[in-house]
From TrEMBL:
Source domain of life: Bacteria
Organism: Bacillus seohaeanensis
Residues in Aldehyde dehydrogenase domain copies: 16-473
Keyword set, alphabetical order: Oxidoreductase
Lineage of the organism: Bacteria, Bacillati, Bacillota, Bacilli, Bacillales
Family, as annotated: Belongs to the aldehyde dehydrogenase family.
Matches recorded under SUPFAM superfamilies: ALDH-like (SSF53720)
The protein, known as: Aldehyde dehydrogenase family protein
Pfam family, one: Aldedh
Database matches in PANTHER family: ALDEHYDE DEHYDROGENASE
């Protein structure tokens, strides 16, 4: 039986609205149409921004306790409807139902942390009398919301990554306009539903669905939008930074994450952690393990165990609790990954397992002997492919780990604390996980990278810092 399409509406300034044109939302597993969403125009986006000007004033005037109440109520609504949210994530995206359920749990936590951080937007007193002649001055600074924030979000975490922008924005008293990924808009609309049910005042939040080529520039370039927060690819990030003009920019642009496994590591633990880190969400994960550098003395043991564990990974129906990995987001992306692997194989890489595609599915793939001039060795694969390399020692592993233009997160497995600290000091990344894969994150920690992995930091309190500005207040007192 064909799915009954409901025809979703977008959330424009607190109102659910339709458009004459629509976009089909497809399940990547079988390419079936599961629903439609409006295809907004540039005029729709302009209207939304004009409405957000009023929303920003409303948001800034909301007392902290009211912001906290609303954000917590949105989390409560999602918690009560968790299964609906998880099914939507698993249907429109690549995640299995187990992965989607974990994303819903994280989204709830993200919102609850946002509510708590609203009470911690502090300032400080300033000792103005540190300067001669200022003995009769006292003051402080406090943080105020910047106004309208434009958020452009990706497909791989279609609920929680949206919450990572919306939660802090509302907690800090801003208005926010979300442009979700065209292929996964339904989860973002469900987040808007939660905030509408929570009593968020009109015009504070909008979720505008449409093609980036038609509405993206309007959002990015409009002078009333004071900040752009973007999670996505490097090319798009660089284009946004060129067009945005004089406004705040926060970007997470992906990576080519390395993990180092030294000879004193627990090999079984390292294998289990890095297999999961490589193939979670079909490898479509900015923190995903892509390169593993293994000390030569344990290379054979690690490689054998890693391939065996990879071959146990169950690929199939996303909605089954038994499935470990589903398809990529569409067949085009699977073909792109296939080409990257084939290029490496043509240049001499060994395919130890995997390397097979069917429609949007690409099997978990392990490569060895990958030449360093291959695209897959230097760029983000964003797919279920991992590269294994033998190294002589820690110094060689660090040098090779740093030899890319990305630096989001890394991992190292060792029982030697001095070697761990050396890696901490020498690896060019925004985060390093000791005895864990690069694919580890909690929603409260600062999250972001160096080099071409992005600008600024997410993580709730750190996002709030980006979304607010300090205002200095100084009183000149009389001598009486």
């Amino acid at each position: 039986m064909a799915t009954q399409l409901t025809g979703q509406r977008m959330f424009l300034a607190g109102k659910w609205v339709k458009c004459d044109r629509v976009i089909e939302v497809r399940d990547p597993q079988d390419n079936s149409v599961i629903d439609t969403v409006p295809a907004a125009s540039a005029e729709d986006m302009k209207k939304c921004i004009e409405e957000a000007k009023e929303g920003a004033k409303t948001a800034a005037s909301m007392p902290v306790h009211e912001r906290m109440k609303i954000v917590n109520a949105a989390a409560d609504y999602i918690e009560k409807n968790a299964e609906k949210y998880a099914r939507t994530i698993a249907r429109e995206g690549s995640k299995t139902i187990r992965e989607a359920t974990k994303e819903v749990e994280r989204c709830i936590q993200t919102l609850r942390i946002s509510a708590e951080e609203a009470r911690r937007i502090h300032g400080e007193t300033i000792p103005f009398d540190q300067m001669p002649g200022s003995e009769n001055r006292v003051g402080y600074y406090y943080r105020f919301p910047i106004g309208i924030i434009g958020a452009i979000t990706p497909f791989n975490d279609p609920l929680n990554l949206v919450a990572h922008k919306v939660g802090p924005a509302i907690a800090s008293g801003n208005a926010i306009i979300v442009k979700p990924a065209t292929v996964t808009p339904l989860s973002a609309l469900l987040l808007a539903e939660a905030f509408a049910e929570a009593g968020l005042p009109p015009k504070v939040l909008s979720v505008i669905t449409g093609y980036g080529s038609e509405i993206g520039d309007t959002l990015v370039t409009h002078p009333a939008v004071r900040m752009i927060t973007f999670t996505g690819g490097l090319d798009a990030g660089e284009e946004i930074s060129r067009k945005a003009g004089l406004k705040k920019i926060s970007m997470e642009l992906g990576s080519n994450s390395p993990v180092i496994v030294l000879e004193d590591a627990d090999v079984e633990e390292a294998v289990e952690s890095t297999v999961s880190g490589a193939f979670w969400a079909a490898g479509q994960n900015c923190l995903g393990v892509q390169r593993i550098y293994i000390q030569e003395s344990i290379m054979d043991e690690f490689e054998k165990s890693f391939v065996e564990r990879t071959n146990q990974y169950r690929v199939g129906d996303k909605q089954s609790e038994l499935t470990d990995m589903g398809p990529l987001i569409n067949e085009k992306e699977a073909i792109r990954v296939e080409h990257l692997v084939n290029e490496a194989a043509d240049k001499g890489a060994y395919i130890l397992t995997g390397g097979e595609r069917k429609d949007a599915f690409y099997s978990p793939t392990v490569l060895a002997n990958v030449p360093e001039d291959c695209t897959i060795a230097k760029e983000e694969v964003f797919g279920p492919v991992v590269l294994l390399y033998p190294v002589a020692d820690l110094d060689a592993a660090i040098q090779k780990s740093n030899d890319v233009n990305y630096g989001l997160q890394a991992g190292i497995f060792t029982k030697n604390i001095e070697k761990a600290y050396k890696a901490i000091a020498k690896m060019d990344v925004g985060g390093i996980m000791i005895n864990d894969s690069s694919d580890y994150r909690i929603d409260a920690m600062p999250f972001g990278g160096v080099k071409k992995s992005g600008l600024g930091r997410e993580g709730i309190s750190f996002s709030i810092q980006e979304m607010t500005e300090p205002k200095v207040v100084c009183f000149k007192l009389t001598n009486d």
